[in-house]
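User: My advisor, Dr. K., asked me to get a structural model of this assembly before our group meeting. I'm new to this, so sorry if the format is off. These are the inputs:
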Amino acid sequence: MSVRLRRRYKQNKHLATHVHDHISPHAVNNFHQIMKRTGESDDILHRSFTFPTNKTKASLIYVDGTVDSQAIEKILSRAKFYSDNKDENYLSYFNEVGTTKIHSSIPSILNELLSGHVIIFIDGQTDAYSVSLIKIPERSITEPLTETVIRGPREGFIESLRVNTSLVRRRLPDEKLRFEPRTIGSRTKTKINIAYIEGVADESLLTELRQRLDRIETDSILEDGNIEELIQDATYTPFPTVYSSERPDTVTSHLLEGKTAIFVDGSPFVLIVPALFVQFFHNAEDHTQRADIASLVRLLRFGAAFIALLAPSLYIAITTFHQELIPTRLLGNLAAQSEGTPFPTFIEAVLMEITFEILREAGIRMPQPVGQAVSIVGAIVIGQAAVQAGIFSAAVVIVVSLTAIASFVFPSYSMASPFRILRFGFMGLAASFGLLGISVGFTAMLLHLSSLKSFGIPYMSDLSPFVYSDQKDALIRLPKWMMKERPKTTDHQDVERQHTRKPSPDQ
Amino acid sequence: MLMRRLSSILLVILSVLLLSGCWDRWELNELSIITGMAIDKSDDNYELTMQSINPAEIASQEIGNGYAQSFNTTEIAPTIHESLRKHVNKSPRRAFISHLQVLVISEEVAREGITSILDFFYRDHEVRSDFFVLVAKDDQSAKEIMSIVTPLENVPSQNIFDSLQYGARSYGGTRIVTLDDLYQDATAPGIEPALMGVTVIGDLKEGQDRANAEKNAPAATLLIEGLAIFRNNALVGWLNQDQSKGLNYITGDIRDSVGSFTCPDSQEEEFALESFKERTKYDVRIVNNRPIIDLTVDIGTHISEVNCKDLDLSKEENFYLVEEQAEQEFVAKLQDTVQEAKAHQADVLGFGQMIHRKHPKVWEQLEDNWDEEFPNVEVTYEVNINITDTGNIINSFSEDD
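Assistant: The format is fine. Below is the predicted structure of the whole assembly, which you can bring to the meeting.
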């Protein structure tokens, strides 16, 4: 059918030679106008039909693949039942099939058409109808890949904005939950929703966020990462100041703490602001597991962060500058391993770290069937063989492996990256100045962290500035009934959260 | 502007890192880890023997070739530090002495005085002050002691270190003196240092061979026994093993020990007490302007061996008999220790310090002439032995059973 239409369009090409914005009373002319503007794109289809009752001709235009084709058939087949009386006009007629809006200029019609609406021109009318019949193929809801839990919900966000907001709405059927729409990107016209709970979220934070979003002038927003880079507080820092999550339950819990979420259509990640340093070490499971183990695991994560950051540099510093710190027998063993290795410890460690980073990158990008080959090459060739060949000392391989494992403990992938980057800096400092270099570097890092802010809130909040009451859910997590208030750092209004007393059988 | 600032900052950081970097860096395979040192005298110079471990042989991995686990080099120089640095003449690596565990001084050097030796070890930044200091006994040179290949621990310095460390926890005949302790005892008024003695027993020649460690009954072993006592930081005499234990009891430096005592009703037979708790208290009285030191030693023990035929331990009164017998013998041991120290005018017991603490005014009069005054100090002893247990059995086996 489309071939036939196309031929007819080509025959009548001369009819629409100039571009104009007004809607012609001849439905076919409007179609030609649109085809001219879209450069005869293959995916734009056209159906003509007639309302039998009043013999009015109409044109129906849509983008193939973005609309529900069954609904189109419904419009066409029901046209013969259309009765032209006063109670029923075209608008209410189309409204029965899908939400319908009236537009009166070609550019706005184009906009609607390209975002998946069905456009209907009717002979004799200078208005057009756009019916929302969007049906874009989407992935089904699956378990999130990045933030996995043992106990807890298994739902993850998908690429559709509406599905994502519905996942949050389901968990938070509160009248105060707001989804504020925005469209960003002159070409991508990406739909964005700012989510917050009115009366809980800080107004000034919202104003700030709206301003920052409105400041964005770009042709494309493809992904949540684009937004993050355009609204974050500090750009020259390796540390993320915007939190992103793939889990609806995480987003819901942050909304309840007075934070704000940004949903971006086309991305399975939702941004949360403000983001605090400690928050990147929290995981949804911290709240589904019992408080004691959750606290211990959190402390373990902070410990692992230290290992991921400092283990190679401490090894370098201690074995090349401060040998007196190593117990004698251990020193004997370490010295035995370095017998005959040709490189200085620093070079060894850096080479090993770079090798590991290559392996890791290869592991992520490799097509899955080849993945196994990488792990075999990595484990045997680079680990074992390099030590046996006497190129690297076994201790360096152990330290680098420990570092690698520790860097996978981060619940948030975006927080693992700064630690990966800074690790190399610390290794350089350790090789030049030993422990002194490490302590200077660490102090500098702490100063930098303390200077960061996320949407006006100090990045190291809860710890520095120290907020005593927020310690209940920072480094450790206390039982739920003890957390009677929302965190003070992010929430200043509607502070009280619950009145549950300590559970005991006599109550 | 920003680029210029960034690049200048980068330049500063890079020059700091690259121009100054690594000046103090020593890789592990450039270091010779010295765990033992021996100081002998060679004419007017020090003869310094350094024991380096051979890491490849010591590690539990199979990378060794079966060579000796340690090797010794000897250097002669007028000062200790110079002879230490001359080490590299004979070994391909720099001598690293932070891991020094044992320092053995020959008796000859010790008799001349140890002050000049201590200076270097206390002054140098690389030395840690927690290694043990010993004196070579029985005219054995310190160098030879470092050359015995001993079983279990093939490295002599490690052997001495472990032996001392665990000996103090199980028998109490040894006394742990680290450089720190030595320095304190050598410099503080009213106390003199006492250092452990070490010697070689058996065939010295065979003991230096690696085959010595492979034998069931080694031809030569190291023996750590006896305490060298000092007066004005020069060696003046020796305490035997029992006296060493007595000294440890008086100074309260004992943790766990075993002692044998004669049975209450028979001089021929013995019983053993294992002590697990020990507390020493002292008091100083001034009578007729002379100080009298009252020592009280409380010892918690249990009976660990009984060879007495007619001792019925199921009766309570017999416990008191045993305790009384042990107390008497104990006092005799302590007296013997004090007697020996007095004979050498070496106040290793720290009586001077006791007087200083309790009666500083009296000490002021005695201080200048303490070496002569020390033998005249009167000492009273009170030993309280408390037996709490008889082990898994009560009475010994007898023919009647």
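One thing worth pointing out at the meeting: The interface with chain B takes residues 319-321, 323-324, 328-329, 331-341, 344-345, 394, 428-429, 431-434 of chain A (CB under 8 Å).

User: Perfect, thanks a lot.
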